[in-house]
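Deliverable D4.2, example record:
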Amino acid sequence: MNRNSRKRLCFLGLSLIIPVILLAVFVVYPFWELIYMSFLEWDGVASIRPFIGGANYRQLFFKSPEFWQAFRNNLTYLLIHGLMMPLELVLAVVLSSRFKGANFVKAVIFLPFIINGVGISYSFSYFFSPVEGGFNYLLTKLGLGGFIQSWLSDPKIVNYVLSSVSIWRYMGFHIVLFMAGLASVPEDIMDAAVVDGANAWQRLRFIQIPAIRTVIDFMLFDVINGSLQMFDIPYIMTSGGPNGASNTFSIYTIDTAFKYNNFGLASSMAVIMIAMIVAVQLIQRYITSRIRRKEGHYA
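Output generated by the structure prediction step:
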């Protein structure tokens, strides 16, 4: 090995030391400590942390209806966001066409995503308030006073109301991502399809959707990941109420750790969350690869 090769090897080794150390200190070690803590009984203060094996996991799966309630609430966000994806794609196709004022519309729909989530949550808390709330006021003015109710206090509808706020906040971001993907579709292909007589639906089905499949895969993962980790909107607007009806996985985890001082149980919930996200990613990759193989595309 000559001198220049040794210098390059030494430089490469030195350049990797700091990232590896940072990765070990801030990612690998905390992750290992989280897994280890999930098998302990610890209140976050005591110096003694008894090892209790899988008791925390058994308690969550078999003795904690609150855990399953929070999980069902997260699934509500996932279902509603998933149902909105086709509409977001259609809106992205419409906004990708050239029309007067398109840039202004794009800016308006993207604006909620860049607004602070805390501010959005507080604003909608007043909007849906039963006492002089803006939404009930609008219903009254429209002659729909019979539909007035306490939107954030009814366990049957509170999660749907919170999901609508989440949709309002993230729809613009999803539309912009779809538009970025659609911009990568070559115009000559689209023009050729128009010349061949393909209508808008056929162009979307057979050209645009296959061309942006990577974007769709990312969007699906982002929706699933975001739905499972939903925190700020329900925490600020309802604090998980009424009576835990709008608790999400993240709220229940934080309450378990810092309100009930059960860090072992909270750690086990965090591990379950990570396992679910990894499992969803693996399943999504498997399904995507199967679809691409059927179409003759190999990832």
